[in-house]
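CHAIN AND CONFORMATION:
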Amino acid sequence: MSLLTSLIKASTQFQSSLDKRPDVAGGQNNAKASEAAAADQPSSPTDDRFTRTAPQNPDLAALKARKLSVTDYKQTVGQDLAFVRETLRHKLAEYGVHPASAINVTKGDNGQVQVDGKLSDAKRGQIEQDLNNNKGFQDAFSRLSVNEPTLHFVDTALKLNKAYGVNNSLLDTLVSDNQQFNGLQDLVHRYDTMRKSVSAEQLEAAGARKNYAFNFNTRA
């Protein structure tokens, strides 16, 4: 009697497991559908999960890149560039430095503005102090230090494509299918992520530099 009871119980459990299988499969299908839907959603411009992948269709990727609003990017960068140049010209005049003097302005590891050129140590120190106390200059210079390298990379890649028909695979991977997410700051974020994830050789081959130092020359 005990053996019969065990067999009945085992048969019941087996039938129950068969009845549940469609639900499991349905759950798996729903999970796959959810994953596919999530993959179709455009990534946020600040999404840190950005990974560089090769475009499946290089021709379509290049066409997508050519739709970038480079003129608008240049206007944005140009405003900060003009402000920085004008501030430096006034600062050189203030301390009696010839306006055509060639100087380089960079940011040190501590985030402070540093000035190099044919200046006396006293004047260099005064100019650096004034620039570091000028919030407007600091903000404009900080934006330039990230926006200008991205614009240079994008503009150069597009010019080479137009002149020689050469596609830049790194540029193609930066551009979103949704033009809404191809603003300058979107590209800046992706470009910065890309520079951290690819090798220096890949960047050099694509016309970019992994370690960028912003140089400013008053003669430019």
Summary: The first strand starts at residue 103 and ends at 107. Helices lie at 2-40, 58-65, 70-94, 121-133, 135-164, 169-174, 184-197, 200-205. The longest helix spans residues 2-40. The beta strands are 103-107, 113-117.
